[in-house]
Design a protein that fits this description.
Layout lengths: L39 H14 E3 L8 H5 L4 E5 L5 H9 L4 E6 L2 H13 L5 E5 L2 H8 L5 E7 L17 H9 L1 E11 L2 H13 L3 E3 L15 H8 L5 E7 L2
Helix pairs in contact: 1-4
Length: 245
Amino acid sequence: MPRRGKPMFPDGTGPAADPAGSHHERRIRSFQPRRSRVTASQGEALRRLWPTWGVDVDGLSRLDLDAFFGGLPVVLEIGFGMGEATAQMAAADPGTGILGCDVHTPGQGSLLGLAERNGLSNIRVANGDAIILLREMLAPASLAGLRVYFPDPWPKKRHHKRRLIQPEFVALATTRLAPGALVHCATDWEPYAEQMLEVLSAEPTLENLHDGYAPRPDFRPFTRFEGQGLDKGHVVHDLLFRRRG
């Protein structure tokens, strides 16, 4: 681990601490960057693999998804934790690229390590603010899907404005979805599930594939985080919407 105040990747081979810097307006964020407790193996994976499989969300240039993924259709996953579920989905569907966007440095290193060990060439990692990624770096109708699994519920009422799934975010995200693209959200926080259903249902470019919540689809792996919520008596809700043509 670097000493306090020292960059974690001074040679520029790993994710930047604040890739967007002052290039974009300050606003209320739905996340808190976390860079602590990077293990030796995670740090090594980041140093070796980031130059090829990673991208900093600086908002300064358009990301060429065709070149980045070799022409595969691409699904954006926002918030992948330690990456176990992402790696499982990539292994089960090698014909789809997964662009995982997160700010958790240990999770970024973990996912890249999992991708390498399992020979998963369809995973790439974006470091930074997903809203800047969508707004500044992805072309309209360039995504085959959007996944948001168990985002921070910000349970206190005064923090609800920090929740990711808001009308403004959904309106932006749908402009980057191709016709027929799938939007899949999941949460174990009941009030947030209700908000997600309300917001997604109100977006005119989306249609709900079910009457309300969806049954848990087989392609979403069961995660340790999900199990912890179930142990606490939480109910997991999935939502499946499709971008209208």
